[in-house]
Specification:
Elements (H helix, E strand, L loop, with lengths): L15 E2 L5 E3 L7 H9 L10 H6 L7 H15 L3 H4 L2 H23 L17 H18 L4 H12 L10 E2 L2 E2 L6 H11 L4 H9 L20 H22 L3 H10 L7 H8 L10 E4 L4 E6 L9 E6 L2 E6 L8 E6 L1
Antiparallel strand pairs: 1-2, 3-4, 5-6, 5-9, 6-7, 7-8
Helix pairs in contact: 3-5, 5-7, 6-7, 6-10, 7-9, 8-9, 9-10, 10-11
GO molecular function: hydrolase activity
Keywords: Hydrolase
Protein name: Metal dependent phosphohydrolase
């Protein structure tokens, strides 16, 4: 939930951790005015609130929560290695091998949800690099399903997407902050993966995910035909996840993110891949809490493939909870997502 909408009495649904890994508030705590002010002071923009209605609606996950947790722990262990340990090919390979096994499991699990993907839980906007990397992995994988990629190609796409920012672990930080305006982490990451005998396709994803079709990207300024298909897919997923998270933090509309990406078609993004992406990813995920143009708050209950911006919602009224199909209510619209 956007913290500006948090109220005293709400129950925290997840631990709140700052960018340095320090625990600020524990899951299960009842929020007070002072707690909310403290979180804002520490620069926390979003928190997860226990919402029984949302929990019931979010039961359909693209992958089981246990698998997501296992992947998170393994990837976190790899990412937290110091540069000297990352240079140890044998040690790094052990983590990469375990992650690779998990990726195969993810592909098998996610493929079972392929026909109902718009009504499953895929991504969770979050500033943490770990969550972002998993989001990008799953978002890229779904586009791969739509392209009917082979199992081997899906594996390389998903692993490259998960590891797209692995090079950041090898860069120095100043006061905990990473400075990499030239996006050199892409090249460091590519070299790290090649040393560990990962495929050239996976290494290219890591090296090229900040490139752009018109040559304005970084670090090499590659143009359309020189950028690998998988790199183009991951570039879209990476930009989307970052932009959606920024929209949550800045309290702006998710629709603006989509319109902004469409405006960059054939300059930053491949228009064909972007169209596939937008028509398969739920803009307003089932279970998300949304603010309407009437200032009412509602839960999203169902998405429709042909009208992803007009889902069905459950609205609280004086007569109780009412399901409203926005396709049939032209004067009613979603302004923004309050909580994913």
């Amino acid at each position: 939930m956007i913290i500006d909408y948090a109220e005293p009495g709400m129950i925290l649904g997840q631990d709140v951790i700052d960018e340095y890994g320090k625990l600020l508030l524990e899951q299960g705590i009842t929020l007070t005015e002072s707690y909310i002010k403290r979180l804002k002071k520490f620069g926390i923009h979003t928190i997860r609130i226990f919402d029984q209605e949302a929990t019931l609606l979010k039961q359909q996950q693209v992958i089981p929560s246990e698998l997501r947790t296992e992947l998170s722990l393994c990837f976190q262990a790899l990412s937290s290695l110091q540069t000297s340990f990352l240079a140890n090919e044998k040690l790094t390979f052990l983590y990469l091998d375990q992650i690779g096994n998990l990726i195969n499991n993810i592909i098998d699990q996610a493929s079972q949800q392929a026909t109902t993907m718009i009504n499953t839980q895929i991504y969770y906007p979050n500033q943490q690099e770990l969550v972002h990397s998993i989001n990008v992995c799953l978002l890229s994988l779904i586009t791969g399903f739509q392209l009917n990629l082979s199992k081997d190609d899906l594996y390389e796409l998903a692993l490259g997407a998960l590891l797209h920012d692995i090079g950041k672990a090898t860069l120095p930080r100043i006061n905990g902050l990473l400075f990499d305006s030239a996006k050199l982490h892409t090249l460091y990451g590519r070299n790290l993966l090649l040393r560990n005998k990962l495929s050239p396709k996976i290494a290219r994803i890591v090296a090229e995910h900040h490139e752009a079709l018109d040559g304005s990207g970084l670090p090499l300024g590659l143009t359309n035909n020189k950028i690998h298909l998988f790199s183009k897919i991951v570039a879209i997923a990476n930009y989307f996840d970052k932009a959606i998270t920024k929209a949550v933090i800045e309290n702006t509309s998710q629709l603006e993110v989509i319109e902004g990406m469409l405006a960059k078609s054939n300059t930053l993004f491949d228009v064909h891949l972007l169209t596939i992406f937008i028509h398969t990813i739920p803009i307003y995920p089932v279970g998300s809490l949304v603010l309407l143009n009437t200032k009412q708050v509602a839960h999203v209950t169902k998405n429709h493939q042909s009208h992803l911006l007009r889902p069905e919602i459950k609205l609280n009224t004086k007569l109780g909870k009412v399901v409203v199909n926005l396709r049939q209510e032209p004067n009613l619209a979603i302004s923004k997502v309050i909580e994913y």
